């Protein structure tokens, strides 16, 4: 207890403190406690946010614990974003379409699940680049969990066309079919990419794990195909500037890194829980400082 109270950025916990947390496995690397505790402090809210290592087979009990202990909100991360949906009372429309929940709000014992990953990404992209998404043509690399949220959020912003390219082509085709109710989508294998798709695209987004530390030399596509008229965006934020973004920049492209998505998915969760605007700059500052250490 003494250690918690002494940790910079966390105020004293008392009998009125509202409790929050994140469920995942593993969880020891998570920057969410640092970021959300800083957010509560900056906003002057008496709340605390902890990381919970949820072992396989215990998620149902952990979710029941949110109700029993009166936690106001919980984030959910890998590998539980899909399974957790079984244990909630309500699922927001977007989270249902995406098929994953990363934020739970406890409304007097009723647990509602949301997904803030895709909308967090879109807010970061718009804030940091000023790009207009309505009518945009997007080439999205990858077809995993993060891709699903982003395709849905881009569709809601009015993207004119979303081409999904994945190493495993079948997964791209499947995701394109799942999202075809929301936007014009197509799925292809990354190996089949050529200059036509790149010439047609306004934005290319890497949602794959390629390039993430320690495999920093991996690329999600043949970067020779990139050109100066494109905006290149990467979800990976460790390293802050990936090889993909460096090579895109060398071709004259504008670039956008993944840290803002992490900040804004947390900012949306904060807003759902508290009904107040998130102190985004304070959140960004503490995460940047921690990544630089
Ligand atoms: P996931 O569900 O496991 O999906 C991984 C995707 O990456 C699949 O499409 C996979 O292709 C592809 N992939 C993996 N390694 C690859 C490689 N070496 N070359 C080409 N493609 C590769 O993972 P996820 O949850 O979607 O996360 C994907 C990435 O986004 C991770 O790097 C994660 O850190 C990042 N992310 C960032 C944020 C943020 O806040 N900035 C949030 C969420 C995720 P196959 O289908 O062919 O295997």
Overview of the molecule:
The protein is α/β, with parallel strands linked by helices and 293 residues long. The chain has 2 domains: 18-115 and 261-292, Leucine Dehydrogenase, chain A, domain 1 (Rossmann fold, 3-Layer(aba) Sandwich), CATH 3.40.50; 118-257, 3-Layer(aba) Sandwich (Rossmann fold). The protein is built from 11 helices and 12 strands. The chain has a 6-stranded mixed β-sheet with strand order 2-1-3-5-6-4, with helices on both faces. It has a 6-stranded parallel β-sheet with strand order 9-8-7-10-11-12, sandwiched between helices. Residues 1-6 have low confidence and may be disordered. Bound molecules: NADP nicotinamide-adenine-dinucleotide phosphate (NAP). NADP nicotinamide-adenine-dinucleotide phosphate is lined by residues 117, 142-147, 166-168, 171, 207-210, 212, 218, 220, 235-237, 258, 261-262, 265.
What is the compact description of this entry?
The chain is an alpha/beta fold and 293 residues long. 38% of the residues lie in helices and 19% in strands. Residues 1-6 have low confidence and may be disordered.
Itemize the secondary structure elements and their pairings.
Elements: H1 2-6, E1 18-24, H2 32-43, E2 47-53, H3 59-69, E3 73-76, E4 90-91, H4 93-98, E5 103-107, E6 110-114, H5 117-129, E7 137-141, H6 145-156, E8 161-166, H7 169-178, E9 185-189, H8 195-200, E10 203-206, E11 231-234, H9 243-250, E12 254-256, H10 259-274, H11 280-292
Parallel strand pairs: 1-2, 1-3, 4-6, 7-8, 7-10, 8-9, 10-11, 11-12
Antiparallel strand pairs: 3-5, 5-6
Helix pairs in contact: 2-10, 2-11, 5-6, 5-10, 10-11
